[in-house]
Write a structure and sequence with these properties.
By secondary structure, this protein is an alpha+beta fold. The chain has helices at about 30-40, 50-60, 95-105, 125-135, 155-180, 195-200, 210-220, 300-305, 320-340, 355-365, 380-385, 420-435; strands at about 5-10, 10-20, 20-30, 45-50, 65-70, 85, 90-95, 110-115, 140-145, 185, 195, 225-230, 235-245, 245, 250-255, 255-265, 265-270, 275, 280-285, 345-350, 370, 390-395, 400-405, 410, 445-460, 460-475. Helix 2 packs across helix 5, helix 7 crosses helix 11 (about 380-385) and helix 9 packs across helix 10 (about 355-365).
């Protein structure tokens, strides 16, 4: 099977085609996403990773987000409105449509987040608020929280505000890509794939997808199960640990607040090949290196002044050679310090400048270095060879004859004991993954990540049973690429 992976970075878009052999190319982001897609014959499975939503959160001017919350009594919350769903999903108080229209009119913002305390038990009130809000906001600037499928009201609100800010850009990308491959997949920050529809319900899953991609690419190209991947990009250098053949995971905090986002652990250092050199190396990008038509000297130009031949090396001649050497030393020392702090014994180099900088970083850090073929597009290779990963959060309340799957109501077809319920959930997540194009071998193992159940007893008799569980297909490299 042919696999195409695309990684949209801050400077370039990397493309990898894997079909036994590996073919790679880089396309400057100036060409746009359509330019990258037009440069290849899109066949087989297409998967796309992007750092653009993350860039919007970090680099763009702060966006105004108005959050309407439905907390119920006893939990003060900014933006709260009338309405209440209890812990079992019963609606105890309806919303006030007139009050919501007034609140929306009085709090003009760019984006809207809607979050109810127990909306993951019953999303009705959130959906009613959303229907009203569509008169004030376009649909791609509204995010609801029930699809996050987890209790924990404060963290769910933070994550919903993140989704409100990035949904529009993810939706625009999805429309563009679907013009080339209708059933394409997004690569997520957990190093797995998901359908566009699943990602649009929770775009925060794209967080840190580029570091996740380079970790998977390093594993595929080198077979190394324990190392530190040093990915030298145009704007940043990412340090991504790989342990027991898989990237390490972390819980993400947004502006100091806990969020329901898990992604690959990575340290992002704000220096890369396009970092500007003034009196010293600066942690910012102002366009391309002079060797590629830019106006300001960069780390790439410094390498040319010290003997490399990258791009049009003659254009780098305006940079003083002593300042160039100083900039390279500063960069190598900063990255080597990060390598030493990680405790890694082996470094796998990635990125366009890996051949030029990784050996010196390794020498200063005192570690073994590996620079595999296709290191320049390692991110895109990781995207290409990854597999579908998927989790299912299920809540069952037999007394209310209610089943909630990933925040959405589902029918309770029959009474099931615990083993039958777990088996049903595992088969459901397996079928959803197959529907995204996963091969049978990739979904053979479904793990039970969480299970809790208790009986509701009245008058000494068991009347009802309530269960919560999570099943998941873990990320990794698809068997079809091994």
């Amino acid at each position: 099977m042919l696999f195409t992976g695309i990684d949209i970075g801050g400077t370039n878009t990397d493309i990898a085609i894997v079909d036994g052999d590996v073919l790679t190319r880089k396309v400057p982001n100036d060409a746009g996403l359509r330019g990258a897609l037009d440069s290849i014959d899109v066949r087989g499975r297409l998967a796309v990773s992007t750092s653009q939503p993350l860039n919007r959160l970090i680099a763009a001017p702060p966006a105004s987000v108005y959050a309407i919350t439905i907390p119920g009594p006893g939990l003060p919350s900014p933006g709260s409105v009338a309405g209440m769903v209890n812990h079992r999903g019963d609606i105890l108080e309806e919303i006030d449509p007139a009050a919501i229209r007034t609140a929306l009119a009085e709090h003009a913002a760019e984006y809207l987040a809607i979050c109810g305390k127990f909306s993951v038990r019953n999303p009705t009130l959130e959906e009613q608020v959303r229907a009203i809000a569509l008169s004030f906001y376009p649909p791609e600037r509204i995010a609801t929280s029930h699809g996050l499928a987890r209790l924990g009201f404060p963290a769910r609100r933070v994550t919903t505000e993140v989704n409100a800010r990035i949904l529009e850009i993810v939706a625009a990308m999805a429309r563009t890509i679907s013009g080339y491959a209708q059933d394409f997949l997004f690569f997520k920050g957990d190093a797995g794939l998901a359908s566009a529809g699943a990602v649009l319900r929770d775009p925060s899953v794209l967080f840190n997808s580029s570091p996740a991609a380079v970790a998977l690419g390093a594993r595929y190209l080198t077979g190394c199960s324990g190392c530190l991947v040093v990915d030298i990009g145009g704007t940043t250098t990412d340090l991504v640990p790989l342990r027991e053949g898989a990237p390490c995971m972390q819980d993400v905090r947004i502006d100091g607040n806990t969020a329901f986002i898990r992604s690959v652990q990575a340290e992002s250092i704000p220096f890369g090949g396009d970092s500007v050199i003034e009196a010293h190396l600066c942690p910012r990008r102002e366009g391309n290196p002079m060797a590629f038509g830019g106006m300001c000297p960069t780390l790439t130009d410094a390498l040319n002044r010290c003997g490399a031949s990258i791009g049009d090396a003659a254009r780098s001649a305006h940079l003083d050679p002593d300042r160039a050497a100083q900039a390279i030393r500063a960069y190598v020392s900063r990255i080597a310090a990060g390598v030493r702090a990680s405790g890694a014994k082996t470094v796998v180099g990635a990125g366009f400048l890996a051949d030029h900088l990784i050996p010196e970083i390794g020498r200063e850090a005192g570690v073994r270095c590996i620079i595999p073929d296709h290191a320049a597009c390692m991110n895109a290779i990781g995207v290409a060879v990854s597999r579908v990963s998927l989790s299912l959060d299920v809540h069952v309340d037999t007394g209310r004859r209610r089943v909630i799957v990933n925040g959405e109501p589902a029918p309770l077809r029959q009474e099931m004991d615990d083993d039958e319920l777990i088996a049903w959930c595992k088969e459901e997540v397996r079928q959803r993954a197959l529907g995204m194009g996963a091969p049978e071998e990739d979904v053979a193992e479904v793990s039970l990540a969480y299970f809790s159940a208790y009986d509701v007893v009245r008058s000494g008799r068991r009347n009802e049973r309530i269960a919560d569980l999570q099943v998941e297909i873990e990320p990794g490299i698809t068997v079809d690429a091994k």
